[in-house]
Amino acid sequence: MNVQEIDRIAAAIYDAPLGEYIGRDGAGILAEHAANERLLKNNEFLYRKGETTNSFYIVTEGRLALVRERSEDAKELIVHVLEKGDLAGELSFIDQTPHTLSVYALGEAAVLRFKSDDIKPL
Which segments constitute the Cyclic nucleotide-binding domain (predicted)? Predict the structure, then answer.
């Protein structure tokens, strides 16, 4: 990653709720050492209910739907829509438990992925 890319990612981290707790320096460290960007196509799943990803995500572009499948008719119920700066998967990341909801892109979207193995050394 070049310096401009690191600065762009650090700004996205700092502007997210996480930035309030780690500050600009922490955002810079995460951007340089732990962030991986992932692009999602329309309706592409970031993760599905029951999966364990050992990661959390920051939405940097587009919107993602948090969905629950209704057992009575197997249709999806959108519980919440995540937008730029929102976190996804943080509860499963902290608890090291499977995801309780599925998340997919509503149009093209981008996220920063932070894996537990990448963050531990920091």
Answer: 34-122
pLDDT in tens, 98-110: 999 999 999 999 9
In DSSP terms, 104 is beta-bridged to 45, 65
CATH 2.60.120.10 assigned to 37-119:
yes
Spatial distance between the Cα atoms of 53 and 50, rounded to a whole number of angstroms: 10
**Other CB atoms within 10 Å distance of the CB of residue 55:** 23
Is pTM, for the whole model, over 0.70? yes
